[in-house]
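Private note to self, pasted from the team thread so I don't lose it. Backbone tokens:
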């Protein structure tokens, strides 16, 4: 909200400063988001393998967990980040619909909230891409 004493030039100057701040903050924020999401997500497949003290179910679940770990690391460093994020989004959507949804529609009760949330997060990273602070950007140069 502007006051009647504020001139158009002052309003435009404020808008330009906040716009350029956002432009400069976006690459670092996207990098921090990619890394934070990956660190939080990695605890799930690492636990499924049994490295955090959990009991490994073995077989197919270990193979799926290894794929999730590798894809998440690619997203974190921004190398082939879009295909990796798309793969993770699909895997987590599949996990939600096949494993959690049969236990009821409420994701808070069927244990599917993390799968649904991470599926949407990785879909967002697929759409946004890794940003300028990524190995993909260096690879293209």
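Design output:
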């Amino acid at each position: 909200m502007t006051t009647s004493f504020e001139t158009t030039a002052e309003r435009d100057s404020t808008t330009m400063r906040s716009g350029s701040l956002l432009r400069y903050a976006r690459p670092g924020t996207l990098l921090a988001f990619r890394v934070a999401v990956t660190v939080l997500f990695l605890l799930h497949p690492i636990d499924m393998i049994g490295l955090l003290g959990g009991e490994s179910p073995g077989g197919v679940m270990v193979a799926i967990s290894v794929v999730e770990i590798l894809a998440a690391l690619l997203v974190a460093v921004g190398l082939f980040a879009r295909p990796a994020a798309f793969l993770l989004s699909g895997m987590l959507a599949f996990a939600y619909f096949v494993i959690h949804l049969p236990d009821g529609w409420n994701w808070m009760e069927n244990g599917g909230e993390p799968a649904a949330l991470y599926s949407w997060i990785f879909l967002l990273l697929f759409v946004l891409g890794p940003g300028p602070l990524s190995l993909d950007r260096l690879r293209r140069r």
